[in-house]
Amino acid sequence: MHNKLTKKDIELMQQELEYRRMTLQPKLLEEVKAARAFGDLSENFEYKAAKQEKNRNDSRIRYLENMIRTARIVEEKPRGDGVALYDKITVFLPEDNETEEFQIVTTMRKDPLHGLISLESPVGKALMGKKVGDIVHIQVDEKYGYDMVIRAIEKGQDDGAIPLNSY
Question: What pLDDT score was predicted for residue 160?
Protein backbone atom coordinates (compact mmCIF):
# COMPACT_ATOMS: atom_id res chain seq x y z
CA MET A 1 0.00 0.00 0.00
CA HIS A 2 1.25 3.43 -0.89
CA ASN A 3 0.08 6.26 1.32
CA LYS A 4 -0.42 9.62 -0.31
CA LEU A 5 1.87 12.02 1.52
CA THR A 6 3.24 15.49 0.90
CA LYS A 7 6.88 16.52 0.78
CA LYS A 8 6.29 18.24 4.15
CA ASP A 9 5.07 14.92 5.65
CA ILE A 10 8.22 13.20 4.43
CA GLU A 11 10.39 16.00 5.81
CA LEU A 12 8.71 15.82 9.24
CA MET A 13 9.03 12.01 9.29
CA GLN A 14 12.72 12.24 8.39
CA GLN A 15 13.27 14.75 11.22
CA GLU A 16 11.53 12.46 13.70
CA LEU A 17 13.47 9.47 12.38
CA GLU A 18 16.78 11.28 12.82
CA TYR A 19 15.85 12.31 16.37
CA ARG A 20 14.81 8.77 17.27
CA ARG A 21 17.96 7.23 15.80
CA MET A 22 20.57 9.76 16.88
CA THR A 23 19.25 11.02 20.23
CA LEU A 24 16.57 8.76 21.65
CA GLN A 25 17.94 5.33 20.67
CA PRO A 26 21.35 5.73 22.40
CA LYS A 27 19.62 7.14 25.50
CA LEU A 28 17.20 4.21 25.68
CA LEU A 29 20.03 1.70 25.23
CA GLU A 30 21.83 3.27 28.18
CA GLU A 31 18.66 3.06 30.27
CA VAL A 32 18.34 -0.65 29.46
CA LYS A 33 21.98 -1.24 30.43
CA ALA A 34 21.60 0.70 33.69
CA ALA A 35 18.38 -1.14 34.61
CA ARG A 36 19.98 -4.50 33.83
CA ALA A 37 22.64 -3.75 36.44
CA PHE A 38 19.96 -3.67 39.17
CA GLY A 39 20.02 -7.47 39.38
CA ASP A 40 17.47 -10.26 38.91
CA LEU A 41 15.82 -9.58 35.54
CA SER A 42 12.72 -11.67 36.31
CA GLU A 43 11.66 -9.20 39.03
CA ASN A 44 13.29 -6.07 37.67
CA PHE A 45 10.49 -3.64 36.77
CA GLU A 46 12.93 -0.91 35.68
CA TYR A 47 14.53 -3.29 33.18
CA LYS A 48 11.15 -4.36 31.74
CA ALA A 49 10.00 -0.74 31.45
CA ALA A 50 13.27 0.38 29.81
CA LYS A 51 13.18 -2.55 27.39
CA GLN A 52 9.54 -1.81 26.53
CA GLU A 53 10.34 1.83 25.79
CA LYS A 54 13.32 0.82 23.62
CA ASN A 55 11.11 -1.62 21.67
CA ARG A 56 8.45 1.07 21.19
CA ASN A 57 11.09 3.40 19.74
CA ASP A 58 12.44 0.66 17.46
CA SER A 59 8.92 -0.05 16.24
CA ARG A 60 8.27 3.62 15.47
CA ILE A 61 11.57 3.80 13.57
CA ARG A 62 10.53 0.82 11.40
CA TYR A 63 7.09 2.35 10.86
CA LEU A 64 8.53 5.71 9.74
CA GLU A 65 11.07 4.04 7.46
CA ASN A 66 8.29 2.01 5.84
CA MET A 67 6.04 5.04 5.42
CA ILE A 68 8.85 7.02 3.77
CA ARG A 69 9.86 4.11 1.55
CA THR A 70 6.33 3.40 0.30
CA ALA A 71 4.98 6.96 0.13
CA ARG A 72 3.46 8.37 -3.00
CA ILE A 73 4.09 12.13 -3.09
CA VAL A 74 1.02 14.27 -3.77
CA GLU A 75 0.91 17.94 -4.56
CA GLU A 76 -0.83 20.14 -2.05
CA LYS A 77 -1.52 22.95 -4.49
CA PRO A 78 -5.24 23.64 -4.90
CA ARG A 79 -6.76 23.07 -8.31
CA GLY A 80 -9.55 25.52 -9.08
CA ASP A 81 -12.33 26.01 -6.58
CA GLY A 82 -12.91 22.33 -5.76
CA VAL A 83 -11.93 20.66 -2.50
CA ALA A 84 -8.18 20.02 -2.28
CA LEU A 85 -5.66 18.87 0.31
CA TYR A 86 -5.60 21.02 3.51
CA ASP A 87 -8.87 22.78 2.67
CA LYS A 88 -11.43 23.27 5.43
CA ILE A 89 -14.87 22.18 4.34
CA THR A 90 -18.22 22.98 5.95
CA VAL A 91 -20.88 20.40 5.12
CA PHE A 92 -24.56 20.07 5.95
CA LEU A 93 -25.93 16.62 6.81
CA PRO A 94 -29.65 16.71 5.88
CA GLU A 95 -30.39 13.38 7.58
CA ASP A 96 -29.23 14.76 10.96
CA ASN A 97 -29.96 18.43 10.27
CA GLU A 98 -26.39 19.21 11.38
CA THR A 99 -23.44 21.16 10.05
CA GLU A 100 -19.91 19.79 10.41
CA GLU A 101 -16.45 21.01 9.52
CA PHE A 102 -13.60 18.90 8.19
CA GLN A 103 -10.09 19.56 7.05
CA ILE A 104 -8.63 17.25 4.42
CA VAL A 105 -5.16 16.05 5.46
CA THR A 106 -2.79 13.20 4.66
CA THR A 107 -2.84 9.80 6.36
CA MET A 108 0.04 10.77 8.67
CA ARG A 109 -1.95 13.68 10.11
CA LYS A 110 -5.49 12.37 10.33
CA ASP A 111 -7.45 12.81 13.55
CA PRO A 112 -11.17 12.29 12.86
CA LEU A 113 -12.18 13.20 16.42
CA HIS A 114 -10.80 16.70 15.77
CA GLY A 115 -12.16 17.08 12.22
CA LEU A 116 -8.94 16.10 10.42
CA ILE A 117 -9.86 13.50 7.83
CA SER A 118 -7.56 11.69 5.45
CA LEU A 119 -7.84 12.26 1.74
CA GLU A 120 -7.80 8.45 1.50
CA SER A 121 -10.81 7.97 3.81
CA PRO A 122 -14.27 7.38 2.27
CA VAL A 123 -15.36 10.93 3.19
CA GLY A 124 -12.06 12.44 2.01
CA LYS A 125 -12.23 10.59 -1.32
CA ALA A 126 -15.83 11.65 -1.84
CA LEU A 127 -15.12 15.32 -1.09
CA MET A 128 -11.95 15.75 -3.16
CA GLY A 129 -12.56 17.95 -6.20
CA LYS A 130 -16.17 18.74 -5.30
CA LYS A 131 -17.46 22.32 -5.17
CA VAL A 132 -19.74 24.43 -2.97
CA GLY A 133 -23.34 23.31 -3.46
CA ASP A 134 -22.43 19.76 -4.53
CA ILE A 135 -24.27 16.90 -2.87
CA VAL A 136 -21.84 14.13 -1.95
CA HIS A 137 -22.98 10.58 -1.18
CA ILE A 138 -20.96 8.54 1.32
CA GLN A 139 -21.58 4.79 1.17
CA VAL A 140 -20.61 3.35 4.56
CA ASP A 141 -21.41 -0.28 3.76
CA GLU A 142 -23.74 -2.25 1.48
CA LYS A 143 -26.83 -1.22 3.44
CA TYR A 144 -26.12 2.29 4.68
CA GLY A 145 -25.07 5.52 3.05
CA TYR A 146 -25.74 9.19 3.62
CA ASP A 147 -25.55 12.51 1.81
CA MET A 148 -23.80 15.73 2.67
CA VAL A 149 -24.05 19.13 1.01
CA ILE A 150 -20.90 21.23 0.72
CA ARG A 151 -21.70 24.65 2.17
CA ALA A 152 -18.25 26.28 2.20
CA ILE A 153 -14.65 25.62 1.23
CA GLU A 154 -11.85 27.56 2.88
CA LYS A 155 -8.65 27.09 0.93
CA GLY A 156 -5.76 25.92 3.07
CA GLN A 157 -2.13 24.95 2.89
CA ASP A 158 0.30 22.93 4.96
CA ASP A 159 1.90 25.35 7.39
CA GLY A 160 3.30 22.50 9.52
CA ALA A 161 0.91 23.26 12.42
CA ILE A 162 -0.83 19.88 12.20
CA PRO A 163 1.47 17.33 13.85
CA LEU A 164 2.19 13.84 12.58
CA ASN A 165 0.19 11.01 14.16
CA SER A 166 2.11 9.60 17.06
CA TYR A 167 1.20 6.00 16.13
Answer: 80
